[in-house]
Design a protein that fits this description.
About 70% of the residues lie in helices and about 0% in strands. With about 120 residues, the protein is mainly alpha-helical. Helix 1 (about 5-25) crosses helix 2 (about 35-55). The two termini are about 20 Å apart.
């Protein structure tokens, strides 16, 4: 297995998990796991993930700052985050929808910053 590929996946997933706590503060999945709510959450989460990467400098990306959480996590957010990660693991369509939205913009930023080798 290509180590770099594994590192890219870890960066994307780690940053996505950190961003989830910010995004879901107004969304309560526990009240009704409708597909529309889940799709909406995935779309918003993908957009927030992209915005976070685009807002970071190349130096921040190279230093691994994207993996650091900016605020302590409350138990409710941790529970929702765990549900989201479990859903990504168990639902191939959900995983495809999320990663297809974030892959191009984030990998482009990482490439442009030299995090992904150019040769």
């Amino acid at each position: 297995m290509n180590t770099f590929s594994l590192d890219k996946k870890r960066i994307l997933l780690g940053s996505s998990v950190a961003l989830l706590t910010v995004l879901i503060s107004s969304v309560n999945i526990e009240r009704g796991d409708t597909q529309e709510m889940v799709d909406n959450l995935v779309d918003k989460f993908a957009q927030k993930t992209i915005e976070k990467f685009n807002g970071m400098s190349c130096q921040q990306l190279k230093s691994g700052a994207v993996m650091q959480s900016s605020a302590p996590q409350d138990p409710r957010k941790a529970k929702i985050k765990a549900k989201f990660i479990a859903a990504l693991h168990s639902d191939p369509q959900l995983k495809q929808r999320f990663f297809s939205q974030i892959s191009d913009p984030i990998l482009t930023k990482l490439f442009d910053c030299g995090v992904i080798p150019k040769h």
